[in-house]
Amino acid sequence: MEVIGRGTASPPPAAPLVVGVGAGRGVSADEVLGLVEVTLAEAGLSPRGVTELATVEAKAEEAGLLTAAERLGVPLCGYPAEALAAVEVPNPSTAPLAAVGTTGVAEAAALLAAGPGGQLLVAKRKSTPHDRPGKATCAVARRPAAVKSGQGGQRRPAVDRPDAGQ
């Protein structure tokens, strides 16, 4: 009998990542995924570490976000604009304030989903399609090891994963 891995210890897994996403009406899943993948790669982070996409409730039914979450195999959770507005963000903007009632979606959603002690690893980035203005933003936060999925904040899943212990 062969014993594989005997005498070796696996390194502890890295704390989970949360990607906050903002979106304009009609954003495509490809634009969202392209932005998320490039952002993670440039930061030296793996898409396998992502445990959640987070956004504002008003955008939680946006087809491009739902499909992006599905393709990543993670839930898309929507947070109330009031909860996002209470999160201090490094790059506030008037655009989401007018659209959804908060000065930040991507950074605020990432930090809120990461929970207490969460750390913003990548500040807000915007997609840059060649033929038109970008419709997606994202930011990446690391959830502390002690915070498990579902403990970050006032999350309201927009997508329930069938394997999420129901």
Mean pLDDT: 84
Strand proportion: 15-25%
Distance separating the two termini: 38 Å
Order of adjacent strands in the largest pleated sheet: 4-5-1-2-3-6
One letter per element, helices H and strands E, the order comes to EHEHEHHHEEE
Number of helices: 5
Helix content percent band: 25-40%
Question: Overall 3D geometry?
Answer: globular
Q: Measured on Cα atoms, how large is the radius of gyration?
A: 16 Å
Largest beta-sheet characterization: 6 strands, mixed
Number of strands: 6
Pick out the low-confidence regions: 1-12, 151-166
Structure classification: alpha/beta
Write out key terms for the chains shown.
single chain, 166 residues, alpha/beta, 5 helices, 27% helix, globular, disordered C terminus
